[in-house]
Design goal:
Layout: H1 5-11, H2 18-29, H3 31-34, H4 39-46, H5 50-59, H6 65-76, H7 82-93, H8 98-116, H9 119-131, E1 135-138, H10 144-157, E2 161-164, H11 169-176, E3 184-188, H12 195-206, E4 210-215, H13 221-225, E5 228-231, H14 244-260, H15 262-278
Parallel strand pairs: 1-2, 1-3, 3-4, 4-5
Helix pairs in contact: 4-5, 8-14, 9-14, 10-14, 11-12
């Protein structure tokens, strides 16, 4: 289904029954809240039965209510303002324990990421990184923390890592202007997607570089610009982006790359251990 679900609802409004029109009007006005309601709760909110809500979803062309709900969530993920995110989060949590709910949501994201991971794409990404002339890691705003973490560890293995974390399209282009066909660019972006990241990795692809995208879906703006897409679930709608699953994916990427660069990594770390010890970089803890 290619059309926006809200457009589909508006187009078919005249053909709906009285109960279906109540559902449709509520979704059009409060789509940010409706997307996270069960069929039963949506029905109670607008004053119709749960079965009417299910039939409404089928009427729109979806297999069932969960399918329609998923379409709504996908549509709004990049539309919600920070204020709307807070409102939706508070509405979903209600009287539940915040810590338990957030931790369980993160656990679920890691599980889903593991189940959906394209192993071939992951292996191809590791191979491309190990053979790259230069490795650009592009991640701005909240994704900058992920880019910095990945860059920190790849710097132990390579001397050609270039970190691009400054916001602003102009600033990004200034840092990637020399990218070429023998380079790899790792673009990191999750909803709400940064336009400077998207434009940056598209430029790198146009310049012949191999683009590895770390994002929430293959058909996301980053996924569409990438040769290899690593999908990590992060669709927690709240003021704070859920970066637990993306961070786990980066951990896996670092470990897999370290296996390929074991000798070089060991040499570097042996030198660093001597330096760290000589200059007392770390506290020596005695039990």
């Amino acid at each position: 289904m290619n059309s926006d679900i809200l457009t589909i609802i508006q187009t078919n409004m005249s053909s709906f029954s009285k109960g279906q029109k109540l559902i449709a009007k509520y979704i059009l006005e409060f789509y940010d809240k409706a997307a996270f309601m069960t069929a039963s709760r949506l029905g109670k909110t607008v004053g119709v039965s749960e079965s009417t809500v299910v039939r409404f979803a089928v009427e729109l062309g979806y297999v069932g209510y969960p399918s329609m709900q998923k379409a709504l969530q996908a549509m709004i993920l990049n539309r919600l303002t920070s204020v709307q995110r807070i409102e939706v989060t508070n509405d979903r949590i209600g009287d539940q324990d915040v810590v338990s709910m957030v931790l369980q949501a993160d656990i679920d994201k890691i599980r889903m990421t593991n189940e959906a991971l394209d192993r071939a794409a992951f292996d191809a990404a590791v191979e491309a990184i190990t053979k790259a002339e230069n490795i650009y890691i592009l991640g701005v705003r909240s994704s900058a923390s992920l880019a910095n973490f990945l860059g920190f560890y790849l710097n132990y293995m390579f001397d050609n890592v270039r970190l691009v974390t400054k916001s602003g399209t102009g600033s990004v282009f200034e840092q990637i202007v020399r990218v070429g066909p023998r380079d790899v660019v790792i673009g990191i972006s999750f909803p709400r997607y940064s336009s400077s990241t998207i434009k940056g990795i598209q430029f790198c692809r146009d310049m012949g570089a191999t683009v590895i995208g770390l994002t929430d879906a293959k058909d996301s703006p980053v996924g569409q610009c990438s040769h290899h897409v690593l999908v990590a679930k992060s669709d927690m709608v709240s003021l704070v982006d859920s970066l637990v699953a993306p961070l786990s994916m980066i951990n896996a990427l670092v470990v897999a790359t370290a296996q390929r660069r074991e000798k070089e990594l060991a040499n570097t770390l042996n030198k660093l251990e001597r330096i760290w010890d000589e200059y007392e970089v770390y506290e020596k803890v005695t039990n």
